[in-house]
Structure formats: structure tokens, C-alpha cells
Amino acid sequence: MDLIHGPILPALLSFAFPILLSNIFQQLYNTADVLIVGRFLGQDSLAAVGATTAIFDLIIGFTLGVGNGMGIVIARYYGARNFTKIKEVVAATWILGALLSILVMLMGFFGLYPLLQYLETPVEILPQSYEYISMIVTCVGVSFAYNLFAGLLRSIGDSLAALGFLIFSALVNVVLDLYFITQLHLGVQSAGLATIISQGLSAVLCFAYIRKSVPELLPQLKHFKWNKALYVDLLEQGLAMGLMSSIVSIGSVILQSSVNTFGAVIISAQTAARRLMAFALLPMTAISSAMTTFASQNLGAKRPDRIVQGLGIGSRLSMSWAGIMCIFLFFASPTLVSFLASSTDGYLVENGSLYLQISSVFYPILSLLLIYRNCLQGLGQKVLPLVSSFIELIGKIVFVVLIIPWAGYRGVILCEPLIWVAMTTQLYFSLFRHPLIKEGKAILATKGQS
């Protein structure tokens, strides 16, 4: 999709909507696991999956971040219509993706079980937790492959194709979850296996589509060549986004260690609430993802004024949705938590609902955080968005060490919202001091006077 010309609002919405649907079905991977495991295997199995949530997000977030980060480089060359360079970039992403997959798999093989023990995973659910997450880590290359191919499609504005493949594979994931658990009785590990098989299908279908519909994007043997500047650019951008997500997830892993100390019921409440929050935030993440590609394409086209206009429109859209969700979750969270956790336990429902009702008040701030950070990434900034992730990591450590032992589970609930405020402040000053944003505002001011 061309995000360089024409009205901005329809372009952003048209590009964000397939991403939104894609994110919804991506969430179904995890939510299907939670819903089916909780309903058919019981509360302990649900807690076992929930206790690995932060680790799961760490792994998947890293692969998604790397894919999207490298996609920013592709989007830049696509905006400049340099197709030869695009093929060289794609070739390099494949090589780097394979190497990073092997590295993550080896780290997981040696460190996964000790990590679960360090997080104080309750001993009664530890074996099931390890069974589930070890399957995900062993096959991390599948997640890398899908996110690299999907990132390539999104970088050229074709988010609709990746959506179709993802919908298909998400449905396959649900069917396999039900078959493995209810018919073959394979236990918690089969939920991880279903996720991997489904993502593998997405990767294969994405590649087949690219090969048939846009073969000019696929590299030939001559494009697999060493280019130090290109590899450095890809690694910096890909690892910056991957590490940014990982740093956030490391903070979540540390926070999970505190959640685990409250026992299986609170773990289940937290798991259900976090899944519901993820769904509530999907339109905001879709708009911010669209902002990344929008900013990157217009950076390549040298249109800073258009970037500033898109920034304002995206911010207003995202904040509007945040306000709607704040009101909705205040009233609907008890029913939603009970349904997703497959439980009528009053203590579980009360704490899961409290998590959503308090955190949703801060969603408007979070909406700006996502827009500002993604715009900076689209402008090719690597360090400034990473700083916000370090703020989040340090903040979670402070909460785990000093506040949660005193405040209990309410300290867990308040941890992220208060950190969002600090992160948004840092990102605001980083973005609006950027030379391109200043240039774009100056151009718009000149146009307004003429």
C-alpha cells in the first residue's frame, strides 16, 4: 500500500485494519491455549501455562521485534523504490534470522528450566510449565520464519495477505488444541505443539504468496553477498526492536516472579486479565504499527510534513479507542475474567477484574506511548525507543524489590500503569525534539501562512 500520497486518515485506517485483524488472530494462539487448557485440563494446568506467559512473550516478542525492525529497513528502500536493494536486504534477513533462531534455541535448551525455578514457579505446576514452554523454544525458528515473511509483506504495505494466512492458521491452532487435548490426551505440551504447527503453516503460506505474487522481492543467489553496512543496519534496527521487546519482557519475567509467589489462583487471575488486556489494546497496537511503516515510507520519500500530520491523526485515533476501553472494562471485566478463566472462584474473578479496572484508566497514556515509540522507530531511531524499554525494566525491578512486598497484588496492578507515565514523558521529548519532526512542523506552519 502506498502511504506516501493521498489522504492520510483513510490510508492509515486501510493499512491498520488488516494489522488489527492479524493481531486478533495472533492473540487467539495464546487465548485458545488458555481457554482450552483451563476448560479441559483444570486450574493447575491453566496456572502452568500462565506461569510461562512472560517467557513466552519474551521469545515471541523478540522474534516479532526482529522481523518488524528489519521490515523498517525494507520499507525505507520500498519508499525510495530501490528494488535491487530490497532483494539484498531480504537475503540478509534470512541469514540473520537463521543464526538468531539457533542462538535462541541453544539459550533456551540450557537455561529454561533454571529460569522457571528462579521465577519461583510453584512446584506443583513446574513440570507442566516446562513441557509447554520448552516446545515453543525448541521450534523458535518457525516463529522467526513467519515474522520475517509477515514483516516483509507489511513493509511493502500488503498487510492483508499476511492476515488471510494467519486467520487460517489460527483456526488450525484451535482445532489442533482441541484434538490433541480432548482426543489424544497429550496434556499441556500439545498446546505448544499446536501453536508451532499453526505458525509453521503461516510461514509456508506467506512464502508461497510472495513467490507467486511479488517474486521481485525474493532474492537470487547473487543477492546473498556480504555487505557490512547493510548487515549492520539490519542488526541495529532488528535487534533494537527485538531487544526493546525483550527488555520489556525481561521486566515482565521479573514481575512474574512476584506474581508466582501469590499462588496458583492469582496466577490464573493474572493470566486471564492479561489476555483480556491484550485484546483491548489490539486497535492501539495496530494503529501504532501502521505508524511505523507510514513514518518509514514518508522518510524515504522525504515528506516530514506528512509524518507530522500522520502523527497527529494516529494519536487522536488511538486515544479515542483507549477511552472507550476504559469505560467498557470497568463494567464488563468480571464477566470476561470468569469466562476466560473458566472459573466462578470469587477471589480469582475479583482480582482479575481489579487488574483490568485500574490499568484501563491509564490506557490513553499507553496509546500515546505506542504511537510515539513506533514513530521514532519508523524514523530509523534505534537508541531512543530502547531507552524507554530500560525505563520499564528498571521500574519493574523497583516495584518487585520495594513496592510489591509492601503493597501485595495491588502493587503488581499499579506497576505497569505508573511506568507508562514515565516512558511516555521520555518518548514525547525524544520525538518532538527530532529534527525531522521540527522540519515537518515548520513546513506545515509555512503552508498554513500561505
UniProtKB/TrEMBL annotation:
Top-rank taxon: Bacteria
Record's keyword terms, sorted: Cell membrane, Membrane, Transmembrane, Transmembrane helix, Transport
GO molecular function, a single term: xenobiotic transmembrane transporter activity
Ranges annotated as spanning the membrane: 7-25, 45-78, 90-112, 132-153, 160-181, 187-210, 230-256, 276-296, 317-342, 354-372, 384-405, 411-431
Keyword Signal: no
One Pfam match: MatE
Topological type in the membrane: Multi-pass membrane protein
CC annotations in GO: plasma membrane
Compartment annotation: Cell membrane
PANTHER family: MULTIDRUG RESISTANCE PROTEIN YPNP-RELATED
Protein name per its UniProtKB record: MATE efflux family protein DinF
Source species taxonomy: Bacteria, Bacillati, Bacillota, Bacilli, Lactobacillales
